Amino acid sequence: MAMDFEDLRRVTFAEPRIGAMKRMLEALLGVVQLESDGAPVNITGFRLRNLSHWECRRPPGFNAGAFLDELAGSCNAACSFCYLKGNPPNWRATSGSAATSYTRFLTRVSRYREREGRMLFPMFSQVHEALSHPRSLEALQEIRSRSSEWMMLTTNGIALTESVVRKLGSLNPVHITVSMNSTRPTTRSQLMGDQNPELALGSLALLREAEIPFAVSCVPWPTIPLEEIENCLRYADESEAERLIVSLPGYTKYNAPQAGSFNTLSHWAIVTARLAPLRYELESPILILPSAFETALDRQPLSRAKVLGVGRNSPAWISGLRVGDAITRVNDEIVISGAHATDLVRKALRNRIVDIPVGVDRAGHSLALALRPCGPNYPYFPTLGPGVLGIYVPLR
Q1: Which fold has domain 165-297?
Q2: Cα 130-230-76 angle, rounded to 5 deg
Q3: Rounded Cα gap, residues 57 and 242, in angstroms
Q4: How do residues 170-194 score in pLDDT, each as one tens digit?
Q5: Cβ 283 vs Cβ 318: under 8 Å
């Protein structure tokens, strides 16, 4: 009977001991011949005898939805900008067949102990589209039966039919990041290989109806007019997206763009200059990634504590904080960076301060605001997203 083995490349980055065990076994087999009933045995692999010995602490920022990555070994799209195309040809850490990947998924999720914060060591995988797996919804139900945490999913939107969104809504709390890229059907088809682009475009309204908070991501690939990226962000904002993500594009010699090479830094600068001003028009916060690039472009003295976004319906939103404000104080402590401002807000939350005093510089005028923590107020949820109390500032 043919046996299916785990790709060692998916293992050794988190558990180098297993790689060391492989090398020791190979060295041993170089000088001895193992036998069974007097017949030579050809060793083609080994297994971990007691999985409880291989448990570890849950990594910081881990969410239960990450278990679905085990099923994301294939994709139902063909995106021109897919970063996996930029991997060297000999790097193909796959998850195996659909049946095998689901068995592995069950092994991992069955050993997840949410209260104790324990799990099997994480795996590396080339994550494609988890919702294209034939048992993805069944897997999500299995995760939910063992965890009450947020499940964070990323999808190209091709599988977000009305029935799928309804099922996801029954599994809340769930957060979806939809890779949209364009609201023009022909562009989305050409860019992503989506044969039914209208379905993904209509999924945002379905997610809102199911009260599933969602982000929308766009990659401003050089073949796409920036006007289409703008329209996509506006459309997502009108649909009440929790946040908007602009992922600045790149390429390697293994994944050259269709239009030929482009100057990455100049293209990034053009995109940032065009899209950053939208923050003053739209209500959903816009994150331009990598954020360090935009921070380097902004040479204003208070740029490191500059507010880049305010979460819709969040405490920061209710307090009157605006895009472009510079946070100068939190709870009477002077702010020296965006990361420092975030840490001070978290400190005030730990100390259970009801109204957190925040000093703001707005176009040269000093203002005093008060952040009052609140419960869920769609699309804002207190434990969701990188924006503490709805404040988005540069963290580097």
Answers
A1: Transcription Regulator spoIIAA (3.30.750)
A2: 20
A3: 30
A4: 999 999 999 999 999 999 999 999 9
A5: no
